[in-house]
Amino acid sequence: MTIIEHDDWDLSEKGKKDAERHHEKIDDAIRKNVKDVIAEESIITKKRGRKVRIPVRGLKDYRFIHGNNEGDVGGVGQGDGKAGDVIDSKQKQGQGGGPVEKERGSDYIEAEVDIDYLIEIMFQDLGLPWIDEKTKNMKLVPKGWKFETISKKGIRPRIHKKRTMMKAIKRMVAYAVEIERQTGCSNDDANRSLRQATGDLKEAIAIIKGNRLTETETGIVFNDDDLRYKQIEPDIEIQSQAVVICMMDVSGSMTTDKKYLARSMLFWLVEFLKKMYDNVDIKFIVHTTEAWFVDEDTFFHKGESGGTQCHTAIDKANHLIDTEYPIDSWNVYCVYISDGEDWDTKKTISSIDIMLKKNINMLSYVEIKPSEEVGLFGSYGGDFGSLLNDIKKHWDFKHTKNAGTDFYKNEKYRFLLSIIQNGTQVLPCLQHMLFEKAK
Amino acid sequence: MTKNEMQKLIKVEDTLNRYAQEEGLEYCDIEWDIIPDQKMFEIMAYRIPGNISNWKYGRDYERIRTINENMHDGLPYEVVINSDPTRAYLMKSNTFGVQCLVMAHVIGHAAFFKMNKYFTETRKDIIQILDAASKRFNGYEKIYGMDELERIIDSAHALQFHSSPFDIESEDTKKIRVFEMQKKQDHKVSKSEFRDLFDKEKDKVEMDVSLYNQKLWRQIKNQTPIEPAGDFLRYINDYSMSLEDWQKDVVEILRLEGQYFWPQIKTKYMNEGFASYWHQKFMTRLFREHILGDSDHAQYNHSNSLVLASHDTSMNPYLIGTKMWSDIVDRWNKGKHGRDWDACETVAEKEAWDTKENYGEQKMFEVLKSYQDWFFMQDFLTADLVDELNLYVFVAKEEIMSYDLVRTDHTADQVRELIVASFANSSIPNVEITNCNYEDAGKLYLVHQHAGIDLQLEYAQKTTKHINELWGREVVLECIINKQRTLIKCHGGKVQVTTITILEGTEEKKLMGPRP
B266 CB near a chain A CB, below 8 Å? Predict the structure, then answer.
């Protein structure tokens, strides 16, 4: 019937407002599910962007619908092929990937979230514990500019009004006293004469002596000498330096699942440190039967396999501390993640002993034991033994349990132990490590 | 759009209208608005221009925009509102060929709205209703707060598609109807010549007729719902003790919106198929008669192939619908139906079959008038068509390293049966209120009438929660989950699911919702 072209059809504000409301709801859902969210593999495997897309549950439109409740998910599709053809395949993910994976697709919607935002939610008020003031080798951190010194020279916009006023008042008072002393007049007269003489002391005395006082008011008269200016200077904060050494077992016994958990844990630790501390050095060490340094990208993305000599990593870290990060000028934090299978726990324990005696700020050992292996310490990998159990025999620990996860703490040596079984324990474990209140 | 293009578009529109008339399509006049892309996304997200404000629309708005920004592949967008005149929106950035495609497609929808019987009761002023409501709702938000308004809207949204435009009787009129029927029936029996044979009937005759009627009416009056009620929102609005007037207004508006969408949900495949069938026909004719040129043809082809693409893990209503309509036309043109056809088993004979019946288009309009998706699938998705369309069933299988979606070895017949079953009640499960004073405690009792397919449990639980929000007292839903009779109880945000074991030989009916 009619065709009308609209060039200037305004968008109503509704879309924007409702989208914001939706965001609030997503934030809320993320807050509630942050434990599950951070176990998302997609976050750490993606190339580094500051934004990640994560699946969020609970923002569906619920109504009565038909569906299959028997668990086998399926549907109808269309295309060439024959029975038995695989239409689509999804790689299994870390722990608990199964049911989640199954549910996804239909139930999950993806939300784009800033990593910093997730970190804020997770580690509110948390920070590196046991941080010490190191006397040597403090780091100068420029924070911007500040006004600190006052000078007699400067430009008008930077006049320091209060200091200028104070200076003027001081001078006026001193002058008035001087006039009183020389002429014996009243303080009031002295002030009035000063005003009449526009601040000139000699003139003021002459006025009193010559009895020429006509001014009725008193008040401050500024003099060029009174002016004070603010001076800007670079703002520098002096902070203690810290280094965090991340060590990970990448041997054959560390299955994809375990490596994923380890990486997920360290990923969040590193992201957190980067956000919270401007000047934390982070070093990465991986080991099989020997240990070597890697860069961050390799650490998070490459696999390895081979035997297991845990002490090699600790030794490497010890060496690093001795050569590059001496304890008297650095706060040293070490995190080591392994599945606890070690070919030579004795050596490892003696290496750990050396490390602890250096008086480092913290050593945190995280053992990854997917649930099916817990309780089989004896039988599983019997020849190698469990590192965690041997460590527990060697040092005393205070045992706590939080959210189904076991934590052990030795305050004297600042030595922390924890066992994680699945992705949801990553967060409690990190919170256990970063228990100190942030400044 | 240049003046030249605009004139050309008007010419195309005239031509399309002429084609449609020649083919016997009837529809209300269509008003076309060419709008900027962002506005299009907004209307798509809000379903109806000027709709009320809610986070779900905001979510969809962002989703559509993001999809468009990141991977826009030329799939044409259409929005058509079933009002009088029909309103249709064309996206400004569409190429000319695509614009024509959308127009031809929309004419198909408009005809479907006018000619299918499920649309006969649709109100034609939904835009105005929602526009006015949206202003009132803004007021409610200021007075009662966003959370409170959102709670009612979200709950009503969950139930709105259970209100069909054919539910026009109020509970009171229903009672009068039932009373009149019952009265007639009772008195009719009492006049039967065999009345003496039934002692009970004898009493009735002897009783004063008006006294009897009074007794009957009292009984009917106290019984609610008098018949199982499927229109939740209306029933809740009439009988909820907890809803305030403004909340009832919100519920009623969303009910009206639900009624507007109800026929569209029930006929999704038919409707999209019908529109696609005609847009292809009309477009071919426009090219043949040189009203559109070669460059338009390329644009049209690209977009059309996207509209009618097959998807490996879902069904495309545009493709499947249009193929089904073509198949109906073809079969009834060649007489490929009836007993002889069904008995024929040789492929060669089937392929050569042609009785020159030439009834295709008439059959199409017959089906158009009276079908909805469920019956459409039941009657016209043949096993042959399943084969031709390469439709298959897949299941998820757990492998060592991955989850695979694997094609099953179901035969075409079995695939057909599964698809038909999935269309039970044309995608709106039949759930009814049977009692509003269950256990004499004002609890609402609902029953799902199982039609071969379960309610999805998680959704059923969450929806029951929404009903509880509106009803204010406990809500009990009886349904069958995995062949077990299940009660979902919800009160105060807590949901409890219990299964009832059925004893051998127990009559099923006893468990189906106790009546007062």
Answer: no
